[in-house]
Amino acid sequence: MTAPWLPDEAPQIYAITHNRDVVSIRQTIRVLAQRCRLSLVDQTKMITAASELARNTLVYGGGGAVKAGLVEKDGRRGIAALFEDSGPGIADVNLAMTDGWTSGSGLGLGLSGARRLVDEFDLVTEVGVGTTVTVIKWAR
Amino acid sequence: MTDVGGSHVAEQGTAVELVGLLSVEGRDVAGEWVKQVAGTLKGRVSVAELSRELGELHEALVQALGQGAADVHDEQMSEVRALLTELSRNRARQGFSPTETAVGVFALKQVLEPVLQDGTSEEIRAFGRLSRVLDGLGLFTIETYTQTREELISAQAEQLMELSTPVVRLWDGVIAVPLVGTLDSARTQVVMEKLLQALVETGSEQAIIDITGVPAVDTQVAQHLLKTIVAARLMGAECTVSGIRPQIAQTIVALGIEFDGIVTKASLADALKLALRKSGVEMVARKAGQL
């Protein structure tokens, strides 16, 4: 899934290498979500999804980066975030997307929950190469 | 052997030339330096203070160069480094910019620049070498400045962590923790410890965790909350989570987090009412006219 970025505004790239980066990404997403006039509920959903995915990038992907910005399709605006790591990849995507399953010590809801929080969700992974997760939330 | 002796002599010569640049007869290099720096700082540091700082620095630098120092990290430079550290620490604390701090060193180059016009070729070469030494000193200043700022920031972060997690007593046997801001592992640890400690100290059996001030509840925050509640339960206390706003409720549902067996309330007032009832306090509205 290639996000249809707004032509006059390039998406920004933010590194995810530390816990505090997760916090600043939440704030970045909040600002973007407010700019494309998401409702308060949708803002919170997008921020929470970004928080989950950023933490996954950090904890399971060994750090990476996120590309975030505004997108437009069919006259609708939205916010997109593309999380990228070059970690171990996910061997069994179906298992990873199962509620309650975790290879770490979390609740096992981050990835599957994030998918439910956004409008579009795309996961590309290859063992030994890395994982890319793209999410989009459209303004209503 | 003659080679070594020769280079020693050359070094000696260099030292003399460098010192010569800094202490010209009939010229107050330190004074001109002060004037130059004072101009860029626009009176935010008094001239008297600058004269003291730069005077000491000038003296130390002349001494270090006289002893053959050629780099900021040389042993002979220790006095200069100490002075520069003090200077940049002060500037960082007083809110000066890195440029305004480093200019204190680089201004000396400007003062000595006329040498390039009317100096001998030896003097010009010496200026080149001194210029390299001063670049090193300037970078050292910025490094120290950044270090100081980072220390300030981490100290503030620690203070913030302490500040934002008060445990308040609402009633006999009822305590509350109003959580504000982002919950990460370190902060949750502080909250958990404070809550459990307060349960013991106040002999409370009811605890309310209010998350009105938490902007987003993701799985990590939820997991930390659940752990805290289980720990409180092990100590015989009951926990209520309050301040769950509509957008947070919907997000929690979409994420699939289950708060099974945990009492949650929309507002702190509701949670307090519940806690009072559970601890056997009856609240009765007084009729008009009654005392």
What is this structure's SSE topology?
The complex is a heterodimer of chains A (140) and B (291).
Chain A: E1 12-16, H1 19-35, H2 40-59, E2 64-73, E3 76-85, H3 93-96, H4 110-117, E4 120-126, E5 130-138
Antiparallel strand pairs in A: 1-2, 2-3, 3-5, 4-5
Helix pairs in contact in A: 1-2, 2-4
Chain B: H1 2-22, H2 29-41, H3 47-66, H4 78-93, H5 98-112, H6 114-118, H7 121-163, E1 168-171, E2 174-180, H8 185-202, E3 206-213, H9 219-234, E4 238-242, H10 246-255, E5 263-265, H11 268-278
Parallel strand pairs in B: 2-3, 3-4, 4-5
Antiparallel strand pairs in B: 1-2
The spatial strand order of the largest sheet of chain B comes to: 1-2-3-4-5
Mean pLDDT reading of chain A: 91
Poorly predicted parts of chain B = 1-7
Q: Which stretches of chain A of 5+ consecutive residues score pLDDT under 50?
A: none
Q: Could you tell me which chain pair has the largest interface and how many residues each side has?
A: A-B, 24 and 20 residues
Report the order of strands and helices of chain A.
EHHEEHHEE
Distance between the termini of chain A: 21 Å
Task: Strand order, main sheet of chain A: write it out.
Answer: 1-2-3-5-4
Number of continuous helical runs of chain B:
11
The CATH architecture of chain A is 2-Layer Sandwich
Per DSSP, the total helix count of chain A is 4
How are helices and strands ordered from N to C of chain B?
A: HHHHHHHEEHEHEHEH
Tally of individual domains of chain A: 1
Task: Supply the number of structural domains of chain B.
Answer: 2
Under CATH, the topology of the largest domain in chain B is which? Globin-like
* CATH class descriptor of chain A: Alpha Beta
Reported CATH architecture of the largest domain in chain B: Orthogonal Bundle
Structural shape of chain A: globular
- What is the CATH superfamily classification of chain A? Histidine kinase-like ATPase, C-terminal domain
The number of distinct β-strands of chain B equals: 5
